[in-house]
Design goal:
Elements (H helix, E strand, L loop, with lengths): L5 H11 L8 E4 L4 E5 L10 H10 L8 E4 L3 H13 L3 E5 L5 H9 L3 E4 L4 H15 L2 E2 L6 H7 L1 H9 L5 E5 L4 H13 L4 E7 L4 H8 L22 H10 L2 E5 L1 H14 L6 H12 L5 E5 L6 H10 L2
Parallel strand pairs: 2-10, 3-4, 3-6, 4-5, 7-8, 7-10, 8-9
Antiparallel strand pairs: 1-2
Amino acid sequence: MNLPTLQDVLEAARRLEGRVLRTPLVSAWALGVCLKLESLQVTGSFKPRGAFNHILRNLDRCRRGVVTASSGNHGQAVAYAARRLGLPAVVVVPEDVVAVKEHSIRSWGAEVVRCGRTTAERIARATELAVTHGLHYVPPFDDPDVVAGQGTVGLELLNQFPKVRAVAVPCGGGGLVSGVAVVVKSLRPDVQVVAVEPEGAACFYESWRRGTRVRLDRVDTVADGLRAVEPGRLTWECASRYVDRFVTVSDVEIQQAVVRLFREGKVVAEPSGAAAVAYCVREPQQGAVAVVSGGNLDPSLLARWLARWD
């Protein structure tokens, strides 16, 4: 299996120039950690980096349109990229998709299809639609072009904070943490890379613990973007080679991180986006950066959690 390289990420960065934002890195003093705010990226998450890079690399195959599977953020990214490139798009989302994410997908002109609650169910339906309608399938994470696109987060981060000592990254299917890890370990092998998963969807942690890729029987977490039942083949190869630590955080820790980011950091983060912050708050380390991977938060959830930890 050919893993993405630093050169692939550098080429992706050039390809994405003018198509995605260079997101800020800020110091959140009250939380004791620096934040890489991918929540401010186009469509509200890091996902356009990988989606755009994949589509641009496979543009001839996309002429009849594209289809993907997503809990919401990757779907928004594919819809956005397709709109920019004049392509039809279909996005398969979970039955319990977050309303603000579904609305955003539709606002970019994509068709939405609901299916199941897990990543595996959505991918199966999306690949079926690809065959039936002659569409090009854009993988949410387990793809070298997607991983290379996500790796541009790592490039920016190292340039913005040369004194970084550790990078904590939310981990669902593993595309983001794999791409970041490839970059960081290629350019700064002294910097620790930590993959952070919810306790209720810890497929990478369990795979690391057992020494082989594991498929979970079920997942249950408030972090809808991190509900992967097993690591991708490519992302597991990347992560197992380049990631230093695999850790888990509870749903309560994630919810509290969402609240603290809002109150003390003035940052809106969805549960998946706050997972790395939850870890960094629990295990503070000087020179640490937490990637806030998305900000597409259901306002009703925020209101409920703010009241809970008033």
